[in-house]
Structures are given as C-alpha cells and as structure tokens.
Specification:
The chain is mainly α. It is built from four helices and two strands; from the N terminus they run ααββαα. The chain has one domain. It is elongated and about 45 Å long. The chain starts with a helix and ends with a helix. The mean pLDDT is 88.
Length: 88
C-alpha cells in the first residue's frame, strides 16, 4: 500500500485546502473512493485497485526470479484530483 500513499496524501492536502479539516463520514467516503479512481499506467486505464493487484502480482513474480519491471502509480493530474474531490 505504501506506493499509493502519495496519492492519498495528495487528496488529503486538497481536502484540507478546501476547508475539510475534520475526519467526517463524508471525508472517510472520499478517502475510500481513491481505490476506484481510474489511473493510466503503461497505456492501461483502470481503477487504482486493479493496479494494486497488478503491482502485487508483478512484485511476487519478481521475487520468484521473473524478469519483471514494477510500474509504480503516478500522482493524480489536476483534472483527476478535481474530479475525485468533486465526487466527495
């Protein structure tokens, strides 16, 4: 999960800048929704949780000796971040 922490931090920072300083039920829902945000990694756009599964699989293959390259997540673009916050 740690590779995805910068994305959570990015959303939390934006929520704070929008005046959300309490951990309300709405904010918790917003943070939980991060896993469903579409992200493009290696020409594949799908929800973040799918990329988590793929990264976990690739890491396990790497540990088993396969020639894999890990594709870490990228921070959300301003548009993706705004869309995520607007859904909250």
């Amino acid at each position: 999960m740690e590779p995805y922490r910068p994305i959570v931090d990015q959303v939390v920072k934006q929520l704070e800048q929008n005046g959300q300083t309490e951990l309300t039920t709405e904010v918790k829902r917003c943070l939980a929704s991060i896993a469903t945000v579409d992200q493009t990694i290696a020409a594949s756009a799908s929800p973040l949780f799918r990329h988590m599964q793929q990264l976990t699989y690739d890491l396990s293959e790497l540990f088993l000796g396969a020639d894999k390259t890990l594709k870490p997540p990228q921070l959300l673009s301003e548009i993706e971040l705004a869309a995520t916050i607007n859904q909250c």
